[in-house]
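Journal club side-thread
Mid-discussion, someone asked how the predicted structure for our own chain would compare to the paper's figures. Pasting it here so we can look after the session.
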Amino acid sequence: MPEGDNRMKAIVTGGAGFIGSHLAYKLLENGVDVHVIDNLSTGHIRNVPSGAVLHLADVASDKARSIVLREKPDVLFHLAGQANVARSMADPAEDTKVNVLGTVQMLHAAVQARVSKFVMASTASIYGATARERLTESDPVEPVSFYAQSKRASEQYVRLFSRLYGLAYTILRFSNVYGPRQMPQGEGNVIPLLMACLRDGRPLPIHGDGNQTRDFVNVRDVVEALLAAMRKGGNTIYHVSTGVGTSINALARQLLAFHPAEVPLLYLPPRAGDTEHSCLDNGKARKELLWEPQVSLAAGLQEAYADYMRTVSNG
């Protein structure tokens, strides 16, 4: 940090991506000096706010570690990763390299750079096919995909680095995040996939009977949770969610309400490995992070729909 500059400095890995770019914008609004580490494999340079410094690097590389050592941030938000479940099943070695090795590299750098707080993004996927209606942070994790397993291993590395080196951390397990700038790739991407079908006039694909439920949380609420984790909630795990399940049928109907043309629903066979219901209890985050979701699903979907249609029409 430059002499005489007392601003907080943050590094956001994956800051050119969906959630990371929203976080970078908000940090800048709060007067934080923001550095982004991203290899642009799924992110876009247009997503990076002009006030942030972009470093082109893979988080698993020595280059990324050297950036952390040079910049010495106060907080490191680790959001970069391979988030496509199907891709993890096709290439588990690459998934492990990006997610596990990338996390270890950033943890190692954080310890060496004396980072005050390490905040890691994790996922509801690590619970696997559970029959519980609403999950708490103490429920057992049973991954059913290599992606989920890599996030579980990453969480374990975070806790181990904390025990061995005293690194302060907060792990946030996200439910299905949605909002502006989300593209139809990665985990929990049902909303942009349905919007892509609406754009092209294709039937909306519903796997199974459509009664399966997911917990959809808006990216703006997720960013507020990340900011809260920067200052509170040391050395523990929190759910970032609404605590409310929404069926895929209801989701499709809400999106169709925004669309000017009629588009049919196309029911397909269930996908292997899909869970019937996924909903995360957020009581712990409400109590300890003093955080709670503010954006309603109806308002959030309308904003995401308008942004997606505008973005794709502008290329």
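Post-session note: The mean pLDDT is 93.
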